[in-house]
Amino acid sequence: MEQMTRIQQNTLRRIVEAAIELMSERGFHRVSVQEVGKKAGICEKTVFRYFATKKSLLDEIIRYRAYASELKREFQNGRTWNLEHDLKLAARLYFQETKAKRNAFRAYLSALDSVDTNGEDFLRDPRELHAFLCDYMTAMQEKGKVRAGDVRLMVRAFVNTLHGYMLMYCLNDDGKSWGDKVASMKLTIDLFIQGFSQTGNSVTA
């Protein structure tokens, strides 16, 4: 599907967005290719010209929900080399990206039994996020602003925590209970900042 025309690109986007909308509501396995085509306003045969299998459509949804490159760019533009500011910035950007693509996350989460969780498409964004945050934390150690320790483990703990809250957000439709989780998330991030800080001073509200 290389060198697609603009019309082909638009058709592919319509298919993917239709699939995301349907699958985020009903789950991957409960949506047929025929239903995706109807939602996109095209016939089932056209869908199969772009995606030979339903699994290949799922792979495209995983690529669609990519977030790390934009997050990295925004983080590098906004960082101040102040640990509290920068980790809160990273968390905020992460959840902004998640919120913007919530339905795509929900769609592929409904099909984890069909996803290659060791595949490059699935792992690309987590790896990129982990890599640039490791670079940041290493630089902060060199500046004497982050305590000594294994940067990879620090970043893994931080990212895994963000990912856990992201999963709760994507799968939770109860706005009232989500408010409590947001408060818990903010406290957790503050504790990370205290733990990573060279001085261990309390963070501001």
**Distinct helical segment count:** 10
Share in helix: over 70%
Main β sheet profile: none
- Rg from C-alpha positions? 20 Å
- Average pLDDT, rounded to a whole number, is 88
Tell me briefly what this model is:
By secondary structure, this protein is mainly α. Helix content is 73%, strand content 0%.
Walk me through what this model shows.
The chain is mostly helical. Helix content is 73%, strand content 0%. The protein contains 10 helices and no strands. Helix 1 (6-26) packs across helix 4 and helix 5 (68-78) packs antiparallel against helix 6. The longest helix is centred in the middle third of the chain and has 23 residues, at 120-142. The model is unreliable at 201-205 (pLDDT under 50).
